[in-house]
Specification:
The protein is of the alpha/beta class. The protein is built from ten helices and eleven strands.
């Protein structure tokens, strides 16, 4: 299986050659073309997160239900644990019937699909441990500068950690719990029923949800002067913060914002940069959108 990494790129499924697999947003939304053997496994657009599994679970199910990935080229535009595990599955289809593989893929899928909002993932810390290479790169600011080759190496490192976990050579959940530290964050603005925070750790949503904060925009400054933003609500049942509407309002000001029904974020540009909007601008745009939503139902 061949891998193509093009940071920030999105295309239509029809633009891909035959025997292509687009992962986690390279093509927006889940798509199937059995005639030319082109598939998009994604859960970021044109879907309801509650009933759409993460990319790694979609790929697992596809392989178990008959997809032979050996002839395909996989396309990705970003790297996280979900994408890396999907690639591990495409490279190791013969292992997907192993009970441990299925168990950990399901756990990783729940964490990714629900952005930390799902409470019963008992291996949460071990799944986070798998993704430490990516998390550390983002926190340090190195991630946005990584080349395609370096992103490929990052995928391999996450896959190697997954292998260690399967072999029983990773730290236990209990060991990781003892050394766990809560994500640091700074509250920037309080909106109408929602909060904007600045945090370096991309897993900060886990801790915010545990504190009862269910409507959130996170902000992380990058070294190039742009900002990473995530717009999230804990689930599709949290009202007063319609994420797709908010993302559409932001996209009208700066192209490239997008996501699913509960989580989305800033543009992912080919040069590694993200949004050029400043935090106060984003706050004001989101707050105006939230107020319009509330007024429309009164």
């Amino acid at each position: 299986m061949r891998l193509v990494i093009e940071r920030g790129k999105t295309v239509e499924l029809a633009e891909l050659p035959p025997w292509s697999i687009a992962l986690d947003g390279y093509v927006q939304g889940p798509r199937l073309d059995n005639i030319l053997h082109r598939y998009s496994f994604d859960h970021h657009k044109d879907c309801i997160r509650l009933i759409t599994t993460a990319t790694c679970e979609q790929v697992r199910d596809a392989i178990l239900l008959g997809l032979d990935p050996s002839r395909y080229t996989a396309y990705v535009n970003d790297v996280d644990t979900d994408t890396a595990l999907a690639l591990w599955e495409l490279r190791n289809p013969f292992r997907l019937r192993e009970p441990k593989v299925g168990h950990y893929i399901a756990s990783a899928g729940l964490l990714d699909a629900h952005g930390g909002g799902y409470p019963l993932v008992y291996e949460r810390r071990q799944i986070e441990w798998i993704g430490v290479p990516e998390t550390e790169a983002r926190i340090s600011g190195e991630y946005e500068k990584l080349s395609a080759q370096e992103l490929s190496q990052l995928i391999d490192r996450i896959g190697e950690r997954f292998e260690l976990l399967l072999a029983g050579k990773a730290p236990s959940e209990e060991e990781l719990r003892h050394i766990e530290t809560k994500a640091d964050f700074q509250r920037l603005f309080d909106g109408t029923g929602w909060t904007m925070v600045q945090a370096a750790d991309p897993h900060v949503l886990f801790d915010l949800y545990e504190q009862g904060i269910e409507r959130i925009v996170t902000c992380r400054p990058q070294k190039d002067g742009s900002h990473t933003y995530t717009v999230a609500r804990r689930s599709d049942f949290v009202d007063g913060f319609d994420v797709p509407t908010i993302l559409a309002a932001l996209d009208a000001v700066e192209k490239g914002w997008g996501g699913g029904s509960t989580i989305g974020g800033a543009p992912r540009n080919p040069d590694g940069s993200r949004s050029r909007l400043q935090p106060r601008q984003v706050f004001e745009l989101v707050e105006a959108c939230v107020c319009r939503q509330m007024n429309s139902v009164r």
